[in-house]
Amino acid sequence: MNAEVFVDTNVFLYSISDQLEEQAKAGRARDLLLTTSWGWSVQVAGEFFYTATSPKRQFRLSTHQATQYVKTWLNFPTASLTPATVLRALE
């Protein structure tokens, strides 16, 4: 995967947030996603979908909305999660 930074689930969650108390983090997350060469993993995609659609969230997405975000973001470098990729990341 060729990317400057690896993006974690929380960055994606902040990027879609409309919560007043998260405005600063939301802005930084959006800026990162728009201006940086980033990548993520299929695990992060799954975590984002699960968390973003959770009924426990104050601001949650429909499954359709979350799917659309994931489909868009899959255009960016996406690491598969295999034992070999985990070991490579540790090196």
Structural write-up:
The structure is a single chain. The chain has a 3-stranded parallel β-sheet. The two termini are 14 Å apart. The protein contains 5 helices and 3 strands, in the order βααβααβα. With 91 residues, the chain is mainly α.
Largest beta sheet: what is the strand line-up?
A: 1-2-3
Distance between the termini: 14 Å
Proportion of residues in β-strands: 5-15%
The major β-sheet equals: 3 strands, parallel
Number of strands: 3
Q: Stretches where pLDDT falls below 50 for ≥5 residues?
A: none
Number of helices: 5
- Mean of pLDDT: 91
Q: Could you give the order of the helices and strands?
A: EHHEHHEH
Radius of gyration: 14 Å
Helical content band: 40-55%
Cα shape:
globular
Broad structural category: mainly alpha
Describe the secondary structure blueprint for this structure:
Blueprint: E1 5-6, H1 9-15, H2 23-35, E2 38-41, H3 42-52, H4 63-73, E3 78-79, H5 83-90
Parallel strand pairs: 1-2, 2-3
Helix pairs in contact: 1-2, 1-3, 3-4
Précis, in short:
This protein has helices at 9-15, 23-35, 42-52, 63-73, 83-90; strands spanning 5-6, 38-41, 78-79.
